[in-house]
Design goal:
This protein has a single domain, classed as Acetylglutamate kinase-like (Carbamate kinase). Helices cover 38% and strands 22% of the residues. It is built from 9 helices and 12 strands. The strands form 3 sheets. An 8-stranded mixed beta sheet has the order 3-6-2-1-9-11-12-10, sandwiched between helices. It has a two-stranded antiparallel sheet with strand order 4-5. The chain has a two-stranded antiparallel sheet with strand order 7-8. The two termini are 29 Å apart.
Length: 270
């Protein structure tokens, strides 16, 4: 397909808890990852008029050293620089495994590492090289991004989660004149759940303060905010740009069903 500013863009996050076992260090759920990518391949074949951009969480890879070295806080002691490098390396390791599975299914996946394209100042964007992502898409490549460690001119380094990165990219595309169709978060749970395990089908600005009481602690290690950050970044995107996001189950062909307009399971955020 040809890519241009009229091409509907769908940003998809493969959750870290979905594709890795967050309770076992550096452990990938290979069959889950294979299934998700097979769904993505089918979407590409059946809906050639849309463009997907994939991001993935870190799960049991970068979160563990990020907690150990307190990387989110920047350069706070003599071990911080080594810690940053270790966390960035762990993040890249998982990305290579994800890209490898895309390649095995004959999708021309390439890495789009935000750590190589964005500089922050006190954790906010200072400069960027967004043109690289545009050119990857223009050339018919399939960019895969991920939660990453960025160099920061004020605090030394910071972490941008995949949720923050997808929000950032969506905003950049919109500001540059592209069309964002939706953002989809694939998780190991069926959506945002209440205390009885029932799916809350709709979240909006008005009901979110009351629904926050249903937030539960993320299993394993998560230094970037978990479900709460996911919802709040989605609400921010809806408020600023009227983009609808979804938190949905990452099984039972659910991603394909949502894009195809079939009976999907999950939560709509707007």
């Amino acid at each position: 397909m040809s890519f241009n500013k009229k091409t509907p863009l769908i940003l998809v996050k493969l959750g870290g808890s979905l594709i890795t076992n967050k309770e076992i260090d550096a452990s990938v759920k290979k069959e889950v990852l294979k299934d998700l990518i097979s769904q993505i391949k089918k979407i590409r074949n059946d809906f050639p008029g849309i463009q997907l951009i994939i991001g993935h969480g870190q799960g049991s890879f970068a979160h563990v050293p990020a907690k150990k070295y307190e990387t989110m806080s920047g350069f706070i002691n003599e071990n911080s620089r080594l810690g940053m490098a270790i966390v960035q390396d762990k993040a890249a390791q998982l990305n290579r495994l994800v890209v490898e599975e895309f390649l095995s299914q004959e999708i021309p996946a390439v890495t789009f590492a935000v750590s190589n394209t964005v500089i922050t100042d006190n954790r906010n964007e200072k400069s960027n090289f967004f043109a690289l992502l545009e050119e990857q898409l223009n050339q018919g490549l399939f960019p895969i991004t991920y939660g990453d460690v960025l160099v920061d001119s004020k605090v030394g380094c910071t972490i941008w989660s995949t949720d923050i990165i997808l929000n950032y990219l969506a905003s950049k595309f919109i500001e540059t004149g592209y069309l964002i169709d939706k953002v989809i978060h694939l998780t190991e749970v069926a959506g945002f759940l209440d205390d009885d395990g029932q799916i809350i089908e709709n979240i909006e600005q008005q009901n979110w303060p009351e629904l926050k009481k249903f937030l539960t602690k993320t299993r394993g290690v998560d230094v970037t905010g978990g479900m709460e950050l996911k919802i709040e970044e989605s609400l921010d995107l809806a408020k600023k740009h009227q983009v609808i996001s979804y938190v949905i189950a990452g099984k039972d062909n659910n991603l394909y069903k949502l894009i195809a307009g079939e009976n999907w399971v999950g939560t709509k955020i707007y």
